[in-house]
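Internal tracking record. Fields below are filled automatically when a chain is submitted to the structure queue. Please do not edit lines marked as system-generated. If the sequence contains nonstandard residues, flag them in the REMARKS field before resubmitting.
Queue: standard
Priority: normal
Entity type: single polypeptide chain
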Amino acid sequence: MPSGALPDPFAADAVLLDMDGTLVDTEGAWFDAERAVAARYGVALPRDAEAVLHGLDVGAILDALIDRYGVPAAPERLRADVNAAVADALRRTPARPGAAAFVAHLAARDHPRAVVSNAPRAAMQATLAPHPFDAALAVRISVDDVAQGKPAADPYLAAAARLGVAPERALAVEDSLPGATAARAAGVPCVLLTHGVLEASVAREVTPYVATSFPDAWPHLVRDSEVTTPRAAHADAVKEAP
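SYSTEM-GENERATED OUTPUT FOLLOWS
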């Protein structure tokens, strides 16, 4: 059950959605790629490395692989290896339960929305393209668009600015502590979806709004039978950055 009364997404001026782990269940794909690449360099990542790397931007992942786990590779070589390893897997990752219906409700009411991700732009495109909500999420902030990725506030500040809303009037939906920390640092209220992995008590140290999943948080918004076909994006005037 959710922790307390969760904010109504439609009471916010915009909804800012994390991608990896929130809309799409990609976190396992990322870790499998990281572990496979590390193994090529003779390093076996421990299973608890998944929690350490979860939600970090690519630069921070590379730093951890090299500095914490001892992968003997130059950063740019390692970046290329990780990106190549994860590319195909991202195209096959499933949407989180309720994610498509939630986005469809936002789109059907033309409610301002954006995807705010720590992934590079190319990975965002590859991840979202196979899913029915791809066209409904035209406004996208990637780690390539900001000086610092999550847990810094930059991605959420950039998303709010792109949509023309005050950060405190938006609502973020996240699944990781770095992501929720980024939202709160930007002044954006945040609902953290734990997916049964993150302890609710730990999540509540960052945000008071905690739920297990989209169906747990907003069951009235994720019944597929009630969702009309989404329109292609509200943002004819609000364009994605090149």
